[in-house]
């Protein structure tokens, strides 16, 4: 999660989105805290939650139609 081409904040937000879809309690706690430490705002975290929810729901809808 170190700084690289993709900043740490974005890596932590991506990890948070994955943790939301896998529903790993430990990962949720760690990556939310690390995203905040890396400068993520509450608004960015909220938007990450909405994106993860939309992607997960999209999978359910797609699989449900097959």
What would you say this structure looks like, in words?
With 66 residues, the chain is mainly α. Helix content is 77%, strand content 0%. The chain is elongated, with a radius of gyration of 13 Å. The relative contact order is 0.16.
Uncertain residue ranges: none
Structural class of the helices, strands and pairings?
mainly alpha
Q: What characteristic shape results from the CA principal axes?
A: elongated
Oligomer: single chain
**Using only CA atoms, what is the Rg?**
13 Å
> Percent helix among the residues?
over 70%
Give the rounded overall mean pLDDT: 93
For the secondary structure, the number of strands is: 0
In brief, what are we looking at here?
The chain has 66 residues and is mainly α.
Essential attributes:
single chain; 66 residues; mainly alpha; elongated
